[in-house]
Amino acid sequence: MDPTVSIPLMRPQLPSADDLLPYLSRIDKRHQYTNFGPLCTELESALCSFQEKLFGRPVFGVCVNNGTAGLELAIAALGLPKASKVGVPAFTFPATVTAVQRCGLVPVALDIDPHSWALKPSIASQALEICDLKAVVPVCPFGTAQDANDWSNWTKKTSVPVIIDAAAAFGSQATASNVTVVFSLHATKALSSCEGGLILCENPALVRKLKSMSNFGFGQTSFCTATNAKLSEYHAAIGLAHLKVWPKEAEQRRQLLNRFSSALKKVSHQKFHAFEQNSTYAPTSCVIKTIEIGPSNRLEKALNREGIQTRRWYTPLVQNLPFLAPIQAPTPTKVADDLEKTILGLPFYLGLDDQSIGKITQVIEREL
Ligand SMILES: Cc1ncc(COP(=O)(O)O)c(C=O)c1O
Description:
Blueprint: H1 17-30, H2 38-55, E1 60-64, H3 67-76, E2 85-89, H4 94-102, E3 106-110, H5 121-130, E4 133-136, H6 148-158, E5 162-165, E6 179-184, E7 197-201, H7 204-213, H8 233-268, E8 272-274, E9 286-290, H9 295-305, H10 334-342, E10 343-346, H11 354-367
Parallel strand pairs: 2-3, 2-4, 5-6
Antiparallel strand pairs: 1-7, 6-7, 8-9, 9-10
The structure holds pyridoxal-5'-phosphate (PLP).
Pyridoxal-5'-phosphate binds at residues 66-68, 92-93, 95-96, 139, 165, 167-168, 184, 186, 197.
């Protein structure tokens, strides 16, 4: 770690070599290293069972090599005409946008809701009045769930398909009929296979198609966009080992966020508020928004001076990212514009102790 950093932003925690060994021995014995091997299949069914237990709905799933590839496959499977417009939130990680662009479609930046910081059906409906959206990819900001039923009803009403980018929301995000959900299993996520992704939906035929699309399209009888997005057995091993401890870790994450949020409340003095994540199953971040523009910059500098790492998550907004092809925002993105200037992500990881939380809140109180 950089010696000037006293409290890092995150410290991923994946299974140890000892925890992985039984799974690796199975791979050694079987000599199957990828191509939908037994560990990958076991991980898929374990994740589907977990999701079914949590939400009481039957789901079907396919594991892929990362969340971005999962989004690309789910969007490509819609079979939209080239250059169709797809609504995405202005406030998201670039992968939401790159996935749309790599499918030959045109992302259109939409505003977010001021409370959930998420693109919601009412905002998509407004955009639909002036813009011919052919699909929408709402995001679960920092792992907080979207209402899948709301989106399902919206799709029924508008005939516009929805893919939820639920990268950090495994355990929080439900599926619904007509709504496909894509998760990331990246090392920074609460449940991880180091690199990996998971697509869940309630349509078994769609999952069969997605699986084939992740394997060059083998098995398809008509044209489909395809790639190689398979999850290797080694990555599946990490996912299976992590799943064993995940419910316990998720509980620890919730407790940590509660302790951190209470400490932040005591020093907020109405100058900032913490992003609400009450329904998040396994939080991976602690994010605040300052009430006025300006203080988050000052705070960022003060925390960084003390060796406390911060990040302005999901900024710049997607339409301001210099490395993406230009993105239009057909309606004003006022809420996202404000958040771009006032958001600040604080350190958050398993093992962040009360002393470190005390140091962070002290600097915030002093600075504000
Ligand atoms: C909102 C969002 N979408 C997509 C991704 C991409 O996931 P992956 O890193 O597994 O490709 C991320 C990654 O953090 C994300 O935050």
